[in-house]
Amino acid sequence: MFFILGTESKEKIIKTIRNIICKGCGQMSCYELLLTYSFLHLFFIPILKWNKKYYLKARCCSSIFEISKETFNRISNQQGEDIIINDFELKEVFNPNNDTAVCSSCGKRVDSGFEYCPHCGNKL
């Protein structure tokens, strides 16, 4: 008997938040609410999800901010244009203006040119 079993990572855009001031560059812009996760599939059917992470990505400067699950749920359930996001809820993961990134696994700052973290080896 043979099985096709594998793991994969996926990024899903949940919604776009318009007319908000970007924490990365200070311009009026839009954020994309993102959900990323890894999953196990059998014959290309997803079976198990893990490593869920929640992000906001700025369209103006491509800065990426990690947010908590509670903030993600609050934002994804709100309707209309009155979505309020406080800067203290955003943890900067990537800002192209700084030339450094923050590893989401170990939390250390690394040069933004790296594809993998030199401290822990995980993909940035």
Task: State the gist of this model.
This protein is mainly beta and 124 residues long. It has one domain.
Key structural traits:
7-stranded antiparallel beta sheet; mainly beta; 124 residues
Q: Count the DSSP helices.
A: 1
User: Roughly how many Å apart are the termini?
Assistant: 37 Å
What would you call the shape? Answer: globular
Structural class: mainly beta
**Mean pLDDT rating:** 87
Largest sheet: 7 strands, antiparallel
* Helix-strand topology string: EEEEHEEE
**Rg from alpha-carbon coordinates:** 16 Å
Number of domains: 1
Describe the structure.
This protein has 124 residues and is mainly β. The chain has one domain. The chain has 1 helix and 7 strands. The chain has a 7-stranded antiparallel sheet. A hairpin with a 2-residue loop joins strand 2 and strand 3 (45-58). The longest helix has 9 residues, at 69-77.
